[in-house]
Amino acid sequence: MVISVQVESRDDFANSELAAGVEERWGAPVDQPAPSVRAVPSGTVFTALEAMPLSRQHVTVDATMNYRKRGLRYFSGFDFDFTGNYSVANTRPHDIDVAFVFPIEMDKAQVLLSDLQFLVDGQPAPLEMGDQRNRLVWTGRIDKGAERQFTIRYRARGLDSFLYRLDPSLPANDVKLHVGVVGGDNFDYPAGALSASSVAQSGDGIGLDWTFSTLESGVALGVRLPSLKTWDVIIATMARRAWFPFLALMAMLMALGVKHGRPLAFYETPLVATLFGFTFVVIAYLSAFLTFEAAWPISVLGLGAAFVLWLSRLMPDEPKKTFVMLWVATMAVPTLAVVAQGYTGLIYTVELLVGLIGALALSTRRSVRGWLDDSATRSAGVTS
Length: 384
Prior knowledge:
Helix content: 40-55%
Number of helices: 8
Distance between the termini: 44 Å
Strand order of the largest sheet: 10-9-13-7-4-15-18-17
Order of helices and strands: HEEEEEEEEEEEEEEEEEEEHHHHHHH
Number of strands: 19
Number of domains: 2
Structural class: alpha+beta
Radius of gyration: 32 Å
Strand content: 25-35%
Mean pLDDT: 82
Shape: elongated
CATH class of the largest domain: Mainly Beta
C-alpha cells in the first residue's frame, strides 16, 4: 500500500509541476482557430468591417509523434506541418477591401514562425503582425465576382491534442480537415470536438478526415494524439493489487514447508514479503531511467532469481522449477495481467485453469497421493 501511494503521489506531481515544465520547453495542446475575413466596400474607411464567411477551408495536418519522457510519465509530444488552403469569393455587386486574419499563439509554439509561408493566388505575399502579436494580417482588394485563394503553411510542435476551431458566428462552406499521425495507433477526441467522418489505420499510423459541404455554425474539429501507456498508474495498480497474489504465495510456501517438514522461520517470512514488495520498488525506479518494457523483465527476473536460489537453500529437496513456477504464478502473471488491460480477465482465467489442470495431474501421482495419505494419517493420530 505504501508503494502504491508513493507512485500515485508521483503521478499527481507529473500532472501538475512536471507537466507545466514540459509545456514550457516543448509546447502545449494546439488550439488553432480558423482564419476570419472582414470586408468593406472599396474606397471606404476600415471603420465598419463586416464579417464574411470563407467559401472554402481545406486543412491538412501531418503529425509525427515525439514522446517526451519525464520520470515514469510519457507525454504525447508531436511535431506537425500545417497547410491551410482558403478561398474568399466576392459575391457583392461592387469591389471590396478585405482583411484576412489568421490567429496564432506564438508563445505556445516556439518554432511556429520558422517555416511560415503565406501565398495569395499562388504567389508569396507579405504578412503583418497584429498589435498584440497574436495574429497574422493581410489586407487587399477583391474585385466584384472574383475569388482570392489563400495558402498558409507552418511547422510547429505541441502536446496531447490538436484542435481546429471554426468561426462560431458564421456558416462554414466546403470544409475539409485531414489529420495524419505517424508513430501511434490509438487516439481520442478532445471534449467538445466533432468526431471524424472517416478513420483509416495502418501500421503505426492513423488518418482522420472531416468533410462537410456546409455547416450553419462553427464547431471544433480535432483529435487527442496517441499516447503511450501511463506506466506510473500501471505500477501503482500492480502494487495495490499485490496483496492477493502474495497471500497465495505464502499459502503455497506453507504447503511446501509441511511437505518437507521445514516451515519458514519467524524471520524468514518477512524476508519473503520484503523481496516480493521490493520488486515493485525496483520496477518503478528502473522505469524512471529505462523504458518500462526493459525495467519490468529486469526486475521480475532479477529478484525472481534471488527468490528461487534462496528457497532452494531452505528446501534443497524441492526441485528449483517449483519455485520458478511459484514466482511466475504469483508475480509475473498478475503483473502482466495489469499491463495487458484488455486481457486481464482472460489471463487470470488461463492461469487458474492451468493451476486446476496441474492439481488434477498431481492428484493422480502415487507419490503425491501417498504423501497426502500419510499427512491425513498423522493428523488423525494427533487428533485421537
